[in-house]
Every structure is written in C-alpha cells, then in structure tokens.
C-alpha cells in the first residue's frame, strides 16, 4: 500500500513539474522573441532555418518565418500529420514498399535541390573557392517549396506510425497510408504549395502559421516519444485523453530546444534574419 501511495505521489509531482516547466519555457520564449504574431513565428523558424531573405517568401515587406524550402517542408508535414490523424487514427505500420520508394525519391529530390541551391549560395558568397564547380540547374523558390514539401510528406509518413507504435497499448496493425490516401495527401499538399507560391497575402499568412505549427508538431511528437520511453510508458495508453502529459512534456521540450537555439544563434549573429556573410 505504501509503495502504491509513493508511486501516486511521484506521478503527481511529475505532472506539476512538467506543467511548471511548460509555463517557464513558454514565458521565456515569449520574452526573448520579437514582438507581434509574425515575430513569434519568426522565433520558431529561427531555430530550424537559415532564414536567408533571398531564399524566402514575402508578404509585402514581411519575410515568412521559414525559408521557401522549410516553408514547403513543415507546411507539408503539418498537413500530412493532420491528414493521418483523421484517416489513419491508430494505424502503426509504415506504408508499403511502393510508397516508401516514392518517399525515398522525395528525399533525394530534397537533397539534390538543396545541395544545388547551397552550392549556388557558396559561389555567390565565396566566389573564388567554388567558382569552378558547376550547378546542375538554377534553383529558385518554386523548386525549394515543392522539394521541401516532398520531404515534409516523407518525414510525417514515417513519424506518424512510429508515434502510434510507441504509445498505444493496442495499435492498429495496418499501414498508416494506403495508395489512395497517399494520393489524396500528395494532392492536398500540392494545393498548399500553389497557395505558398501564389503571392496572395491571405494565403501566405496562413501558410506562415501552418508551417510554424508544423515545426512545433514534429518536434513535440519526437519529444513525446522520448518522454514516453524515458518514463517507461511504452504502449501504455488506451485513450487520447491520457496523452495530455506526454503531449505537454513534448511541447515543453520543443520550446526549450527552440529557446536554446534562439539564444545561441542571436548571441552569435545579433540578427533575427539570415546568417551574416551569406548573401544569396
């Protein structure tokens, strides 16, 4: 009986510690982030993206929180996670080999376009050292958005079933995405990509918000899995309402990571935009 009481007290203290840590981390991040909604979104993007203006989308004179490639990537990840949450629920298997092959192609396209873009950036910033290395083609913000979105789909398509494998006591032993669902998902992401490159202000503000939420969603899910494994609660949950503590813990750890990177990078560069010296 004493052991049960002690365990109950420990769980209560853990819950309170997580809640207090969440409030402190969020308050500290709000304090150091630039003012306004877009400033807060910028502070999230700042932790995961180079934010070079030349590689970014703009609403008027306002730069989006993430570069074009990261906008496509995390926008697609947010859409893919939300889509799977509705259609796949507790399905915990990776997609079949055919879909995995397409996801690998998405990954390779992301890597090739990113490497090509980075080479062009280095040639513009440090012309002498890289001038003789040819580019495959001219990368632009449109290719960045579309190749980024492919990577976002790939990440979310792997992370979602892994999350279900980790948390549910009785996961659904089916692939998280069928061919039909995968096709619908790609079509939806394609429409969001068109919105991102449309230069329509209301679409771009929505994309800015959604892509930033995609960053938080991915980091929170990864840290939730880490929390569940650390607390030895693998496959211990039966209902979504039981997930509030791992979810809050994951979000708290995500904000602690973002806050740490923000502080380090700002103290290093003294700017909330791109890295000094990279002109693009």
Give a description of the structure.
Helix content is 70%, strand content 6%. The chain contains nine helices and four strands, in the order ααββαβαααβααα. The chain has helices spanning 2-32, 36-45, 68-87, 97-125, 127-130, 141-167, 179-196, 201-230, 244-269, and strands at residues 56-59, 62-67, 91-93, 172-175. It has a two-stranded antiparallel ribbon with strand order 1-2. α8 crosses α9.
Features:
single chain; 280 residues; mainly alpha; two-stranded antiparallel ribbon; two-stranded parallel ribbon; 9 helices; 4 strands
**Helical amount:** 55-70%
The count of β-strands is 4
Distance between the termini: 66 Å
Beta-strand percent range:
5-15%
Number of domains: 1
Query: Would you identify the regions where 5 or more consecutive residues have pLDDT less than 50?
Result: none
Radius of gyration: 21 Å
Please state how the strands of the largest beta sheet are arranged side by side: 1-2
Give me the secondary-structure category: mainly alpha
Largest sheet: 2 strands, antiparallel
Number of helices: 9
What's the pLDDT, averaged over the residues?
93
Globular, elongated, flat, extended or rod-shaped: what is the shape? globular
| H/E element order | HHEEHEHHHEHHH
Indicate the topology.
Blueprint: H1 2-32, H2 36-45, E1 56-59, E2 62-67, H3 68-87, E3 91-93, H4 97-125, H5 127-130, H6 141-167, E4 172-175, H7 179-196, H8 201-230, H9 244-269
Parallel strand pairs: 3-4
Antiparallel strand pairs: 1-2
Helix pairs in contact: 1-9, 2-8, 3-6, 3-7, 3-8, 4-6, 6-7, 6-8, 8-9
């Amino acid at each position: 009986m004493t052991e049960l009481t002690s365990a109950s007290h420990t769980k209560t203290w853990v819950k309170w510690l997580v809640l207090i840590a969440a409030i402190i981390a969020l308050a500290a991040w709000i304090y150091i982030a630039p003012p306004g909604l877009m400033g807060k979104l910028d502070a999230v993007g700042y932790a995961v993206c180079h934010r070079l203006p030349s590689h970014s989308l703009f609403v008027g004179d306002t730069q989006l929180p993430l570069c074009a490639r990261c906008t496509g990537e995390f926008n697609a990840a947010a859409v893919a996670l939300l889509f799977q949450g509705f259609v796949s629920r507790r399905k915990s298997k990776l997609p079949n080999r055919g879909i995995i092959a397409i996801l690998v192609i998405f990954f390779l396209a992301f890597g090739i376009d990113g490497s090509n873009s980075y080479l062009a950036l280095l040639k513009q910033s440090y012309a002498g050292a890289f001038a003789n290395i040819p580019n495959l083609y001219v990368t632009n913000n449109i290719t960045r958005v579309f190749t980024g979105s492919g990577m976002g789909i790939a990440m979310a398509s792997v992370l979602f079933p892994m999350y279900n494998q980790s948390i549910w006591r009785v996961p659904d032993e089916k692939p998280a995405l069928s061919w039909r669902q995968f096709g619908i998902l790609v079509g939806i992401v394609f429409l969001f990509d068109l919105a991102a490159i449309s230069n329509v202000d209301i679409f771009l503000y929505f994309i800015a918000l959604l892509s930033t939420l995609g960053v938080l969603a991915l980091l929170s899910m990864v840290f939730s899995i880490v929390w569940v494994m650390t607390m030895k609660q693998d496959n211990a949950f039966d209902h979504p309402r039981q997930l509030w503590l791992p979810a809050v813990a994951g979000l708290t750890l995500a904000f602690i990571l973002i806050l740490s990177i923000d502080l380090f990078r700002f103290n290093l560069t003294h700017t909330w935009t791109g890295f000094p010296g990279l002109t693009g």
